[in-house]
Amino acid sequence: MEPFRRLTGVAVPMDEPNIDTNQLCPSRFNKLPLGPGFERVLFHDRRFASDDSERADFILNRPPYRAAKILVADRNFGCGSSRENAVLALLAFGIRAVIAPSFGDIFFNNALKNGLLPVALDADAAGAVRARLPRDAGMEMTVDLEACTVALAHEPPIAFIIDALMREKLLEGLDDIALTEKLGGDLGGFEAGYYRDRSWLPIH
To answer: In angstroms, rounded to a whole number, what is the distance separating the alpha carbons of residues 141 and 133?
Structure first.
C-alpha cells in the first residue's frame, strides 16, 4: 500500500448527501479485475451514456476535475453495500482523499485498509469548502496527514481527527497483513515466553 503523508491536488466538490457505493461502483462491476480501464468504473452510470460516451454535464468529465485527487462531499458518503470496489474505483481514478461530514461505516474501514484517506469534518466546515471550490474551478487543496489538517490554497488549515493507529498505518503504507508482519518479532517473542512460562502446555 502506498504511504499517505501529504497530498496536494485539485479538489472536486460534490454537493449532495448519501452518495452510495452503487453509484461509486455499479454492482455489475463488482467482480471486474483491477487493471487498465478500471478508472471508468467510478460513477460509471453517471459519467457515461448508454453508448459509452461521456456525459458532458457530470462534474468529473469537466477539464478542471479530470485530474482531481481530492473529493469533497456531503454527509453519509459511501453508504450502502460493503463492496470494496467502491474504494478501488476512487483510487483507480486518482482520488486519494475524500472529505465529508460523515461516511458509511464499512466504506470508511475499506478506505483505510486500501490507502484512501477519509477525512471527517463537521458539516459547517465541509459545507464551506464545497461552497468555495466552484468559485475557482480547479482550485488545489492540501491534505496533510502528518499535521492532520486540510487547507484550500492560500487559506488557513482546518484540523481533523483520525484514530492514531489508522494514521500510523497510512503514514507507513501498512495494510493489516503488513502491520502483522512488522510486529512479527514481538509476536514470536510473546509466543516463546508464553510456552516457557507454561511448560505443561504442548508446543505446536
So the answer is: 9
Q: Which helix (H) or strand (E) holds 141?
A: strand 140-144
Per-residue pLDDT of 55-79, as tens digits, reads: 999 999 999 999 999 999 999 999 9
First vs last C-alpha separation in the chain: 32
Residue 194, classified by CB atoms within 10 Å of its CB into exposed (0-12), middle (13-18) or buried (19+), is exposed
Q: DSSP assignment of 38-49, as one string?
A: GGGGTTHHHHB-
Question: Treating both helix axes as pointing N-terminal to C-terminal, what angle do 105-114 and 164-172 enclose, rounded to 10 degrees?
Answer: 40
Q: Contact 67/41 with Cβ under 8 angstroms?
A: no
Beta pairing partners, 12 = 71
